């Protein structure tokens, strides 16, 4: 992959930056999974006014451009890797919450849920031990896609100079190499290819998991 303008190995930088980008992607997806699961589960199971209020809040978060919310959060709390991760995670949960709400609406009147109610199980038990495990397939697929989205968003923030300047990431490498693209194209091309490969890999993982669950249901 050549060297950069200071003679440093580009391959080593890409491998090192890959760790930070994947850390942000996985951690942000975990945050969005937790928040989205709680909001979607409660909204779908409880229904009524609670469902309406949570879905209106979800729509408000979803309507506001995610990049704007992340930039605002970083501007308020500083350019830190964990601030960036939390900001991406806390703005990525609405699609997951809406998906899980639909799953709960379709499953909460199922026979196994009715049997759990007859046995005296609490709503918390029914939500997290009865319905949620049966709705895990779309959650895994969406979470895998969120990893790719989070990596791309972190790269965009790093490219704009809004991420942690003390942490090397693929976006930070792109930002530092853009001024040399006409004379040293490899400095920016290889980090960009790696970002694209991460997004492609996460999409393929999501499709593979979805097909696996579909085969289990058929069998």
Describe this structure in words.
The chain is mainly alpha-helical and 219 residues long. It has a single domain (10-218), classed as Orthogonal Bundle (MetI-like fold). The chain contains 10 helices and no strands. It has helices at residues 10-46, 48-63, 66-77, 81-90, 94-107, 111-118, 123-131, 136-159, 170-177, 186-218. The radius of gyration is 21 Å and the shape is elongated. The protein starts with 9 loop residues before the first helix and ends with a helix.
Question: Topology, pairings included?
Answer:
Blueprint: H1 10-46, H2 48-63, H3 66-77, H4 81-90, H5 94-107, H6 111-118, H7 123-131, H8 136-159, H9 170-177, H10 186-218
Helix pairs in contact: 1-2, 1-4, 1-5, 1-8, 1-9, 1-10, 2-5, 3-4, 5-8, 6-7, 8-9, 8-10, 9-10
Briefly summarize what is shown.
With about 220 residues, the protein is an all-alpha fold. Helix content is about 80%, strand content about 0%.
Mean pLDDT: 82
Number of helices: 10
Radius of gyration: 21 Å
**Could you name the CATH class?**
Mainly Alpha
| First and last CA, distance | 47 Å
Helix content: over 70%
């Amino acid at each position: 992959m050549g060297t950069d303008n200071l003679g440093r190995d580009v391959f080593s930088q890409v491998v090192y930056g890959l760790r930070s980008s994947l850390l942000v992607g996985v951690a942000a997806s975990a945050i969005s999974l937790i928040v989205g699961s709680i909001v979607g589960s409660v909204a779908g199971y409880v229904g009524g006014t609670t469902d309406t209020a949570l879905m209106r809040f979800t729509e408000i978060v979803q309507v506001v451009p995610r990049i704007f919310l992340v930039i605002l959060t970083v501007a308020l709390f500083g350019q830190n890797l964990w601030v960036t991760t939390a900001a991406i995670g806390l703005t990525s949960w609405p699609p997951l919450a809406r998906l899980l709400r639909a799953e709960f609406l379709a499953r909460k009147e199922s026979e196994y849920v009715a049997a759990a109610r007859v046995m005296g199980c609490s709503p918390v038990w029914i939500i997290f031990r009865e319905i949620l495990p049966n709705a895990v397939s779309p959650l895994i697929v969406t979470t895998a896609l969120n990893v790719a989205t989070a990596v791309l968003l972190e790269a965009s923030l790093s490219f704009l100079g809004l991420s942690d300047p003390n942490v090397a990431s693929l976006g930070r490498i792109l930002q530092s190499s853009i001024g040399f693209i006409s004379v040293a194209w490899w400095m920016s091309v290889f980090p960009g290819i790696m970002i694209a490969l991460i997004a492609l890999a996460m999409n393929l993982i999501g499709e593979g998991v979805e097909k696996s669950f579909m085969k289990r249901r058929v069998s």
